[in-house]
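Aggregate trends can hide what the representation actually does to any particular protein. In the encoding step, the backbone of a single protein was reduced to a row of integers, each denoting a local shape. The record that follows shows the chain in one-letter code together with its fold in token form.

***
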Amino acid sequence: MQGRVTTRLRLARDQDGRRVAALIERVFAEYEGCIFETMEFPELRRPATHYAMKGGAMFVAEQGEEIVGSIAWFHNRAPDVFELGKVYVDESLRGAGLAARLLDVAMTDIRARGGREIVLFSDTRFTRGHAFYEKHGFQRLPGLRLLEDVSNTLEYGFRLNLEGAAA
């Protein structure tokens, strides 16, 4: 009988960048035309430093040596508005509650930093992620955002008012 594999959440470190990149590359590979290009993710060179300098943080989920989930947050425009980013979970763990655990960590920290609102942007191809966000109270914003990246990504915007969201 094999032992249960545990998933540990922790603050990201700068040296995690390559392993976070590997997670994102695995997720992108699931979608036609979604290309991972390292140069388009300069924040992954030193992710802990990058997000700390933007008034936020990044958490990762790891199993053994592999990073299987990530989430980051940072100040958007106003001091009480934060943006989520790098919300990725390995395909093998989707539906197991890991994304909810990561979101809870982010929301708890954002509230502690005085956050009252969260925004995020998500590739239009990531429909399962959109359902997750909406399940957790995010409202889809009108319109689309075009990124000038190698994948010609179109993104939906989402917003969550923390004052009305469950703690």
About this structure: The longest strand covers residues 66-75. Strands lie at 8-11, 57-63, 66-75, 81-89, 117-123, 139-140, 145-146, 154-161. Residues 24 and 155 are 16 Å apart (CA to CA).
